[in-house]
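During the no-cost extension, the postdoctoral fellow (Dr. R.K.) reprocessed legacy sequence entries with the updated structure-token encoder. One reprocessed record is reproduced below for audit purposes.
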Amino acid sequence: MTDGLYPRLADAFPALAIEIAELLRAEGEPLAEVVADLPYYGPCTCTATCINLLTAPPGSSGSSMIQLERNGMDVVWLSLDPARTTITDIEVLDGRDLGPRAQRSD
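Re-encoded structure tokens follow.
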């Protein structure tokens, strides 16, 4: 559940949220069940070239990540919190246009 301050990732990027959940389920990954309720904190602003979408406050990530593939190619990398109980940010690697919600407003 979100706290109401931020939209859900599934509302901001419905197709992406569905795809991530499906790819996680295909891997037997229980984190598939948290995707629908992830909040969307906006695009990461750590550097000018960072393309991550934040699903937790900046600095929440641990060192664990999940690489999701389609047809043998990495399409999404998910950073996880230190306890590996939620996804903290999403890096979309396949070059798809996610629209204005993924853009920084520098």
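The chain has a mean pLDDT of 90. The first helix runs from residue 9 to 12. The remaining legacy entries will be reprocessed before the final report is submitted.
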